[in-house]
Design brief:
17 helices; Udp-n-acetylmuramoylalanyl-d-glutamate--2,6- Diaminopimelate Ligase, Chain: A, domain 1; 6-stranded mixed beta sheet; 7-stranded parallel beta sheet
């Protein structure tokens, strides 16, 4: 079966499904396999549950006329997504970066939805499976697609660009995330820059922050750029930071915006969404309204009032760069009692020991009342600072937990630490 023929079946279906627990009637089931499971074994179950067709890549599982045999189910899904993207011919904005890409994606979508019919990546489904599924969730009514791209190795962003074929792109930053997979900071810059490389090669438009010297130098000879800045007047989008206390307030074009995002690190994310909104002719008042109504969730920069305590829940993920700015933000708050509960940062490879030590040393320098470090990596750091207390596991932290009062508490760690579990202790 050709991709064109499969695409026609897709257009007449209720959509794509890869999980038999989430089958919708008349969907196309793709039997994707992983290290510990064979998706082909679920094909019959998918058809029984209501799927119209099941796509398999092992001949013994082609059991009837509603089972379609292909060479590779995942590659077929990716080719179908690219064909569908071309079929729709809509504008695609792609973004990547070490920190803040999901929040920025949601802000961009919130702003553009004021005028356009948009579809954006759900959650962080931003990999070689998530990007195709995002593209295949778009339809003839979709005017702009916002596609988040994640990676932890070289060539992954370049591969995702071949599937999504973006018309516009933005990189949030180059931070210390996935150091192990990328092979260090230079590898991160090279890997994330694959988005800009694709856009430049195909003469597409790039949004960028001129306050970021890496981006500024990389794009200085490319003409199809739209920049923003908080410092340089020659850039077409000058956006001014008013204050962070603890929420980010800023202004553009004589319009003041009072966001519900905390930390100066979110200012750049807000600048990007504002700039992209302006480019797509969103009215200033609509940008303001969209931003001010956006409330972060999913354990990202959430403010939770809990009795006498104020909790900054930023436990979705962590790396050295994002940990540093979160701690810096906590340090700058005027609150009387400030506590940090930090979990291990993963995927740092040979840099794990020094990066965890750096975070502990930073905590010692900052004006914090107590710091709790949780996890194997943090447990191995050395410190003589009495305000820093180490726990090898979350369970040992819970066993020794003493309730806080009248405190501002930052909770941050890598996804695998799942530090949001601490919330139940603070109730």
């Amino acid at each position: 079966m050709t991709i064109q023929e499969l695409h026609q079946l897709f257009l007449n279906s209720s959509g794509i499904c890869t999980d038999t627990r989430k089958i919708t009637k008349n969907c196309l089931f793709f039997s994707l396999s992983g290290d510990n499971f064979n998706g082909n074994t679920f094909a019959d179950q998918a058809l029984t549950n209501g799927a119209k067709y099941a796509i398999v890549d092992q001949e013994e599982y082609k059991t009837n006329s509603n089972t379609i045999l292909v060479k590779n189910s995942l590659e077929t899904l990716q080719k179908l997504a690219n064909y569908h993207r071309r079929h729709l011919g809509l504008k695609i904005i792609s973004l990547t970066g070490s920190n803040g890409k999901t929040t920025t994606k949601e802000l961009i979508n919130t702003v553009l939805a004021k005028k356009y019919n948009t579809i954006a990546t759900v959650g962080n489904l931003n990999n070689h499976i998530g990007v195709p599924l995002t593209l295949l969730s778009m339809n003839k009514d979709t005017e702009i697609g916002i596609v988040e791209m994640g990676a932890n190795h070289q060539k992954e962003i370049a591969f995702l660009c071949k599937i999504a074929e973006p018309d516009y792109g933005y990189i949030t930053n180059f931070g210390k995330a996935h150091l192990e997979g990328f092979g260090g900071v230079d590898g991160i810059i090279k890997g994330k820059s694959e988005l800009y490389d694709y856009l430049i090669e195909n003469n597409k438009t790039i949004f960028y922050n001129t306050d970021d010297e890496i981006q500024k130098n990389k794009l200085k000879h490319y003409q199809k750029t739209i920049c923003f800045t908080s410092t340089e007047s020659e850039c077409e989008n000058h956006i001014k930071l008013i204050e962070v206390n603890p929420f980010v307030n800023y202004s553009f074009n004589n319009t003041k915006v009072e966001s519900k995002l905390i930390g100066s690190y979110n200012f750049t994310n807000l600048c990007a969404a504002t700039t992209i909104g302006k480019h797509f002719s969103i009215e200033n008042i609509d940008i303001k309204t969209a931003i001010e109504n956006y409330i972060p969730n999913n354990n990202r920069s959430q403010i939770i009032e809990n009795g006498s305590n104020k909790i900054i829940l930023d436990a979705y993920n962590a790396n050295p760069s994002s940990m540093e700015v979160a701690l810096d933000n906590l340090n700058k708050l005027s609150d009387k009692t400030k506590i940090a509960i930090l979990g291990d940062m993963f995927e740092l490879g040979k840099d794990a020991e020094i990066e965890h030590q750096n975070i502990a040393d930073l905590c010692s320098k900052f004006n914090l009342n107590k710091v709790f470090l949780i996890g194997n990596h943090f447990n191995n750091i050395s410190t003589s600072d009495s305000k820093i207390i180490k726990f090898q596991t979350l369970e040992s932290f819970e066993e020794n937990f003493i309730p806080f009062k009248n405190s501002t508490i930052l909770i941050k760690g890598s996804r695998g630490m799942a530090l949001e579990r601490i919330l139940k202790l603070l109730k």
